[in-house]
């Protein structure tokens, strides 16, 4: 593995092989792995890869267009298939097997859906639609999540040759040169960058994962390929300075980006520009440019196995805690980085090279396309088959299941605590628990900024003249089934005024998944309180998730406005908060199912803020319902009560258990409505 730099004094400036690009590819993957594994907080590695891909593909396509006036689509797509499909297919299937062995059965189903989307190069749109927070650290990440960038590249590879040939033909026809090509590319760069920047605030997941918001980075590389002949004539001293400036820009801006930086926004422009300058400077083949640092045997080898390293590091990172069976520690970050690198080496020599250098596939492009299509199809079929396989639920659920009584007085909670080592729940109930999220009431999602009454917001006795408003966030929505049953029994109309992640109390909320202040909550809250003021319901019930950034002034502001309506106020204290997915815990095969039962001292979090909210509610005349007796007893909060799984995730109770809590709420509401 020696340097590929030509020593000849008359070396051509525009070279077919660029050692600086190979070194930059190594820098990009090291940035990605270091950031994902938490070894070094540096961002932008994927953005650098986009620029590299755009430049390399653009150079190939433009050279072929200059030579023949067209592009052989079969040869182009065959090269892409040979390069990408084998490694991707092997990784997708292998990760599916590892997920079956180590991941939670419920997570396995979600993973296979992601694997299917990854195999057909559409996972970026699935992640955008699901509102995925790429930097979340709550166990919600998928081992296939990193395929989003590969999906964007493959969508680009599908369209790029067709668009370039068409635009180049028009440019020659109209201008007899490449002017139109340059204009179209610059327009695509500017338009896509603007979309990414403008969508980052209102819809960060779409901005982050959308093809239309990221394509400018690849197109920027194509534009560089178009200008390469001109850039190659730069004075070599200037070219060297440009390349070093690019390397500095790349590293500095990459380290300035943090997990709280709104991405993509304008922040990704730093690493993109840095990579662009490095490649641009290298076009002139300067003797003392950044290539002096980037061209070395280590970077050359890392660049060769970079694709496999990218494919393997993320799945291992996500599955590693399940594989080792203990909490992910700092040393495990390095273990994942090293092990994934070793797997990348193995896959490079055993899988990638065999397909990339196969003579039959090279000389017969359509055979290469069919082979790549077969590998892609095999991975997709494997995911579909995996989705049909019965879930491997814990053997602890095979015993006698309790009748579905749910909450039946505090005695039922106490009994559940005593049975915590062998919770009585049927297989069907456990299978349904992750989707049992309640089906009564409405909830406005993140980007909704004003309250509007919809038909599904009215539950209970819809014909009653008496009105009860349930106000809050998702921890109010989780009570929907209980309030529907309560409204029917007490003959009261219930209107749910609820928004996801939006406390009814006035204080500033910053959401990591949006990468900014939750301004939609502020405006929605104002319109919701205005609606309630105009409605003047008989009763207002408030429920919300307790937050560490609660402030007394904000709670007082809201309860003062609610008190002014003249309605009777009821405040439901927040429910326990598990620190893990309860269905996952119950489903995993374990000899210690008692670990799925929460300790009250842990589950009843933020006690000082709980106390603050309760005090403010009482000061403004609210009747307080302490909800904890319906969930906890003797210092424990069981995962199963009366045959119902209590929580469908790590925070919200199931609709089935919520419905059984109608009897818990009835005495208080019956008395207030009677008065």
General description of the model:
- With 675 residues, the chain is mainly α.
- The protein contains 28 helices and twelve strands.
- It has helices spanning 19-36, 45-68, 73-102, 105-119, 123-129, 147-175, 179-200, 204-209, 211-231, 236-256, 269-282, 291-294, 297-304, 306-324, 330-356, 359-363, 365-388, 410-418, 427-432, 474-477, 480-490, 519-535, 552-563, 582-587, 600-603, 607-619, 655-660, 662-674; strands at residues 458-460, 467-472, 493-498, 510-511, 516-517, 539-543, 568-572, 598-599, 623-625, 636-637, 640-641, 644-645.
- The strands form four sheets. The chain has a six-stranded mixed β-sheet with strand order 1-3-2-6-7-9, with helices on both faces.
- Helix 1 packs parallel to helix 14 (306-324) and helix 5 packs across helix 6 (147-175).
- The longest helix has 30 residues, at 73-102.
- It is elongated, with a radius of gyration of 29 Å.
- It starts with 18 loop residues before the first helix and ends with a helix.
Brief overview:
The chain has 28 helices and 12 strands. The N and C termini lie far apart (87 Å).
SSE topology sketch:
Elements: H1 19-36, H2 45-68, H3 73-102, H4 105-119, H5 123-129, H6 147-175, H7 179-200, H8 204-209, H9 211-231, H10 236-256, H11 269-282, H12 291-294, H13 297-304, H14 306-324, H15 330-356, H16 359-363, H17 365-388, H18 410-418, H19 427-432, E1 458-460, E2 467-472, H20 474-477, H21 480-490, E3 493-498, E4 510-511, E5 516-517, H22 519-535, E6 539-543, H23 552-563, E7 568-572, H24 582-587, E8 598-599, H25 600-603, H26 607-619, E9 623-625, E10 636-637, E11 640-641, E12 644-645, H27 655-660, H28 662-674
Parallel strand pairs: 2-3, 2-6, 6-7, 7-9
Antiparallel strand pairs: 1-3, 4-5, 8-10, 11-12
Helix pairs in contact: 1-2, 1-13, 1-14, 2-6, 2-9, 2-11, 3-4, 3-6, 3-14, 3-15, 3-17, 4-17, 5-6, 6-7, 6-9, 7-9, 9-11, 10-11, 14-15, 21-28, 23-26
């Amino acid at each position: 593995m020696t340097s590929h730099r030509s020593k000849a004094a008359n070396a051509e400036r525009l070279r077919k092989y660029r050692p600086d690009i190979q070194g930059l590819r190594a820098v990009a993957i090291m940035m990605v792995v270091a950031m994902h594994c938490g070894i070094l907080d540096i961002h932008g590695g994927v953005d650098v890869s986009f620029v590299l891909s755009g430049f390399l593909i653009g150079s190939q396509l433009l050279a072929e267009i200059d030579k023949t006036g067209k592009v052989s689509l079969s040869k182009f797509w065959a090269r892409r298939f040979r390069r990408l499909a084998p490694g991707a297919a092997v990784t997708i299937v292998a990760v599916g097997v590892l997920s079956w062995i180590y991941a939670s059965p419920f997570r396995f189903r979600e993973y296979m859906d992601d694997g299917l989307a990854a195999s057909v190069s559409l996972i970026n749109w699935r992640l955008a639609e699901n509102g995925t927070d790429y930097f979340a650290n709550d166990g919600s990440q998928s081992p296939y999540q990193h395929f989003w960038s590969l999906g964007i590249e493959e969508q680009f590879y599908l369209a790029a040759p067709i668009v370039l040939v068409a635009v180049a033909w028009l440019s020659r026809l109209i201008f007899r040169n490449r002017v139109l090509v340059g204009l179209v590319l610059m327009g695509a760069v500017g338009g896509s960058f603007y979309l990414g920047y403008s969508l980052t605030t209102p819809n960060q997941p779409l901005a982050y994962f959308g093809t239309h918001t990221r394509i400018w980075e690849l197109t920027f590389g194509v534009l560089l390929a178009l200008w390469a002949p001109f850039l190659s004539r730069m004075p070599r001293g200037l070219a060297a300075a440009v390349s070093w400036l690019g390397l500095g820009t790349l590293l500095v801006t990459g380290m300035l980006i943090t997990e709280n930086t709104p991405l993509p926004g304008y922040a990704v422009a730093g690493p993109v520009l840095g990579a662009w300058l490095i490649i641009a400077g290298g076009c002139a083949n300067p003797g003392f440019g950044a290539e002096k640092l980037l061209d070395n045997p280590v970077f050359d080898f890392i660049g060769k196995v970079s694709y496999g390293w990218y494919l393997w590091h993320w799945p291992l990172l996500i599955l590693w805690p399940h594989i080792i069976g203990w909490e992910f520690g700092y040393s495990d970050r390095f273990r994942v980085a090293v092990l994934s690198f070793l797997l990348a080496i193995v896959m490079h020599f055993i899988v990638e090279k065999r397909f990339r250098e196969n003579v039959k596939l090279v000389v017969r492009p359509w055979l290469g396309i069919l082979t790549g299509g077969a590998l892609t199809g095999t991975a997709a079929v494997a995911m579909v088959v995996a989705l049909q396989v019965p879930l491997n639920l814990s053997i602890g659920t095979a015993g006698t299941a309790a009748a579905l009584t749910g909450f039946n007085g505090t005695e039922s909670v106490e009994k559940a605590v005593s049975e915590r080592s062998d919770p009585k729940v049927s297989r069907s109930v456990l299978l349904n628990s992750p989707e049992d999220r309640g089906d009564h009431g409405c909830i406005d999602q993140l980007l909704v900024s004003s309250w509007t009454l919809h038909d599904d917001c009215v539950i209970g006795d819809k014909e009653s003249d008496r009105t009860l408003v349930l106000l809050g966030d998702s921890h109010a929505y989780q009570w929907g089934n209980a309030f529907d049953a309560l409204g029917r029994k007490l003959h009261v109309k219930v209107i749910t005024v609820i928004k996801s992640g939006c406390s009814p109390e006035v204080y500033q909320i910053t959401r990591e998944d949006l990468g900014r202040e939750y301004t939609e909550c502020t405006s929605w809250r104002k319109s919701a309180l205005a609606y309630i003021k105009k409605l003047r319901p008989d009763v207002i019930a408030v429920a919300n998730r307790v937050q560490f950034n609660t402030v007394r002034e904000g709670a007082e502001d809201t309860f003062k406005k609610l008190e002014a309506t003249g309605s009777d106020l009821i405040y439901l204290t927040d429910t326990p908060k598990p620190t893990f997915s309860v269905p996952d815990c119950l489903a995993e095969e374990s000899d210690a199912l008692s670990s799925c039962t929460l300790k009250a001292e842990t589950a009843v979090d933020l006690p000082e803020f709980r106390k603050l909210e309760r005090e403010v509610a009482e000061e403004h005349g609210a009747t307080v319902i302490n909800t904890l007796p319906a969930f906890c007893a003797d210092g424990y909060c069981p995962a199963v009560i009366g045959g119902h799984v209590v929580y469908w995730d790590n925070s919200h109770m199931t609709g089935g258990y919520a419905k059984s809590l109608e009897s818990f709420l009835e005495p208080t509401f019956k008395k207030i409505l009677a008065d």
